[in-house]
Amino acid sequence: MLAKQLLFLSSLIPLLQAQETVLGVYIFHRHGDRTTKNWPPTSLTDLGYYQVFEAGNFYRNRYIDANASSQIFGISPDLVQNSQLNVQAPVDTVLQNSAAGFLQGLYPPVGATLGTQKLANGTSVEAPLGGFQLIPVNAVASASSGANSENSQWLQGQSGCNNAIISSNNYFFSQEYLTELNKTMGFYHSVEPVINGTFSLAQDNFKNAYLIYDLVHVSMIHNASIPSDNLLTPETVFQLQTLADNHEFNLAYNASEPIRAIAGSTLAAQIVQQLNATITGKSTSQIGIQFGAYNSFLSFFGLAQLPAVSVNFTGIVDYASSMTFELVTNATVTNTSYPSDDDISVRFLFSNGTSAEHPLTAYPLFGQSETVIPWNTFVDQMNAFAVGNQADWCSQCGNSTGVCASTTSTSTGSSTSPTSSTSSSGGISKAVAGVIGAMVTLAVILGAEALILLLAGLRVVSKKRFGNRASPESASVVAKA
């Protein structure tokens, strides 16, 4: 009998050895419910605060708590160690407050027992608010160093990226857009009584698809009464959302113009750099969290080939949605033994809406069939479209002023640099020729846009008219929150 028991126990050893360990995670999160962008200033609502707090609590129960279902190796379960977290959010009230609310759920107050400190003179001090834990949210962090930097504006993705702005604006002159604009004119006019307090008849069209949907969506959540609400049938609301999805996805991603998805490209670099820091630091910095715009979700979805997995990846993600990248291994992990790169993999998960209410589901990336892929494969696939530093961002965006002035001057100032070699005609450097070409192209496009706008009766609106933004406003098309 004893021999059988020993045999049974020995058969369990391989299973125990193969148990998965989470080494670290990167979470990209949208803000919670907010007021409409049509009537600034936009602010996080109590519902939104609740949503992100519950999301933080969900991730605590998954990764941090002592009884977590997938506790991260080496993570502090109760008292936060800020060295283990890298939390970021653009300079935006809704996103910054969402990050703060999320962190309150991730590491809640610890109470008097853990939140009391004894001083040298023998007295004790209890932390305010029941042991409330202070966790910094970095406004903008350098993806390469993790240090705060006012010169890392490129990390805010599409904001100010000249070539991305041109590419996104090209959508408004595409046959696809013009066809949709004309085809849906009657539909939008049919809901005019609902929105005429905010939009004129001239504005009530597919051009403002996102803002119209945002107004209706927020009103249906918060307003006790809506003008002519009998017009807002389930079919009508669904159509408003579908058209807004179409509008925003086409502004965020285009397969033939990768620069349009610059927001997803910069996010990809940040994800890889944070997870790599987890590996090189042997899980001393385990969690990266960033709150950002829904357009960054859409850009990344397109680049990672997720629309091929589900058409849902072409739609605007709901409030408090999140995508998570888990760094996992089946190798033995101890304080003295850490797995090699070949023993580490990545799993991608997504929750459309707060993860406390909507399942966090694994999906395959890059057109692959498996939801868990080797770390080295993940890095290669991400680096195929990632933009990981300011110099590359400036080069791909065609920017040469502001924060890019020093980058441009460095790349063109040395006669021995490959980028400063002269062409066979005229002696103009390739970099300078590129800048001249970009400026000429920009002038031609702007001229064409002005002519088309005049002939078509369209108008150019400020970027606020395209929905919530994740970063300071500098162009007509930027990251939307």
SSE series: HEHEHHEEHHHHHHHHEHEEEEHHHH
CATH topology of the largest domain: Rossmann fold
What name goes with the CATH superfamily of the largest domain? Phosphoglycerate mutase-like
Largest sheet properties: 7 strands, mixed
**What is the mean pLDDT?**
83
Structural class: alpha+beta
Return the CATH architecture of the largest domain. 3-Layer(aba) Sandwich
CATH class of the largest domain: Alpha Beta
Oligomer: single chain
Note down, in words, how this protein is organized.
The chain is α+β, with helices and mostly antiparallel strands. It folds into two domains: about 325 residues, Rossmann fold, CATH 3.40.50; about 90 residues, no CATH class. Helices cover about 40% and strands about 10% of the residues. The protein contains 17 helices and nine strands. Strands 1, 2, 5, 6, 7, 8 and 9 form a seven-stranded mixed sheet that branches. It has a two-stranded antiparallel ribbon with strand order 3-4. The radius of gyration is 25 Å and the shape is globular. The N and C termini lie far apart (about 65 Å). About 20% of the residues have low confidence. This is Histidine acid phosphatase-like protein. GO terms for molecular function: phosphatase activity. Keywords: Membrane, Signal, Transmembrane, Transmembrane helix. Belongs to the histidine acid phosphatase family.
